[in-house]
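Before the break, one more example. Copy the sequence into your notebook; we will annotate it together after we see the structure.
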Amino acid sequence: MTESAKLDHIVVAAADLDAGVAWVEERLGQALPAAGGKHPLMGTHNRLMRLGEASFLEVIAPDPDAPRPAHPRWFGLDNPPATPRLAHWLVRWPGLAALPSVNGPAIRQRRGDLSWLITVPEDGALPHGGAFPSFLDWEMDEASIPPRTMPSKGFELTALRLSHPDAPQLARDLAPILQDPRVSWHAAEEVALSATLTGPEGAITL
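Here is what the structure looks like once it is written out:
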């Protein structure tokens, strides 16, 4: 058990980055920051927005200017959703390299000068349809992690609702790793994620 695992970010997946950004902006009622970049190893690119003190929102899609990687892309993006949607979430877990494999091996990723470890299933699929998180390690002091320096639009993540047929078991599996009152689990026939963001104009749902 680790007491330092924390909710790091939520992921909106899209077939096209501009379409994913537009989907989020329509719901926020304002433009996303320009922050983001490319992931050469995975052939994807993203846009980012800070949520609160140390979390963020990521919109991610295949990069049409990048060659298709020889291995599966992460976040199921070899087969992206036809319509942008909240698809996944990640937990930062310091010391990830020394911990048992969870939802795939921890591999090194890079975007510009930034480098981090992240668990990626070998088939690139979303763990439990996206309801169970992937894990990452920024390999730096908590006070220096990237979310703390990202541009903000004044939104905070105030709730993350996870629906899954095996929700009770997934909740038990995650409980020793993460305790966060914003995260709730719900038994349902279909996998679904929804996030409540509270901002300048009140609460919105993704």
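The longest strand covers residues 156-164. Residues 16 and 157 are 24 Å apart (CA to CA). Try to locate both features in your own notes.
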